[in-house]
Amino acid sequence: MRLGVLDVGSNTVHLLVVDARAGGAPVPASSHSTELRLAELLDGDALSEDGTATLVETVREAQQTAERTGCSRLLPFVTSALRDAENCDEVIERVERETGVALRVLSGEDESRWTFLAVRRWLGWSAGSLAVLDIGGGSLELAAGRDEDPDVAFSVPVGAGRMSRRFGPKHLAEMRTHVRAEIGGVIGDLLRAGPFERAVGTSKTFRSLARIAGAAPRSDGPYVHRSLRRDDVSEWVGRLAEMKADQRAELPGVSAGRARQILAGAVVAEAAMELAGFDEIDICPWALREGVILNYLDHLNGD
């Protein structure tokens, strides 16, 4: 069947269209991304009227694209940017009323668990016990375990976008202190689920950091091994802090839209890896969107 996964995140609204079947890997058919930056459209703690109207139109366009590309089912969800807005329920209701799309609000734990599921399926059982890290725009997700459902799963409000808005490059020391304190509150529980055979990073921030540190480009395909060393992250924190956003956007793997927050992403990655004791992590091409698909297929087939 052809499925569409609509991911309304802190930075982008991303529609991933895949051909999927039980027992098989989802095969990407097309990908469509719109930079929305929901977190910057907040009026206080609520999504603004302009932000809501823009979201409605973006979801409508994504729905039309899903229909045009032959999707039999759309799996739409939202993460921290809208989840944390005080008018989240009202926005969700308006989107459904005006587009017919019922956005599902994922909890931070849902994000962690389904990302872990995707990583486990990609790497397989031979990977042993896993620790999985995922830096989003609004939060850092951490999960660990030996099975497909992690033993522990956490969400920490230190996403790259959130930290970029709160701290600028001139406040790097304060950002580092805050990030370490937040991650330090849960890292002990994560480590008690160990020891781990492999530590894994997923999603755009880790992929971008790995690329600027010398990992293979995306054009080489998903099956090329990619990894990220903590020493390289620490080196790049200092280098990124000296760059302006337009200079960061010239780096391999860093888009103009992500250039403003890649420094904060590096700070979060450095802190998480150091506090967990990970000298190096592998990079997995599957993350939350694939986890949503796999979870849907599992329940569809009664697993």
UniProtKB/TrEMBL annotation:
Q: Give GO terms: molecular function aspect only.
A: pyrophosphatase activity
Q: Which SUPFAM superfamilies match?
A: Actin-like ATPase domain
Note the CDD domains from the entry: ASKHA_NBD_MtPPX1-like
- Record-annotated Ppx/GppA phosphatase N-terminal domain positions: 20-298
Q: Which branch of life, at top level?
A: Bacteria
InterPro entries found in the cross-reference section: ATPase_NBD (IPR043129), GppA/Ppx_hydrolase (IPR050273), Ppx_GppA_N (IPR003695)
**What keyword terms does UniProt attach to this protein?**
Hydrolase
Instruction: Indicate the family of this protein.
Output: Belongs to the GppA/Ppx family.
What name does the UniProt record give this protein? Exopolyphosphatase / guanosine-5'-triphosphate,3'-diphosphate pyrophosphatase
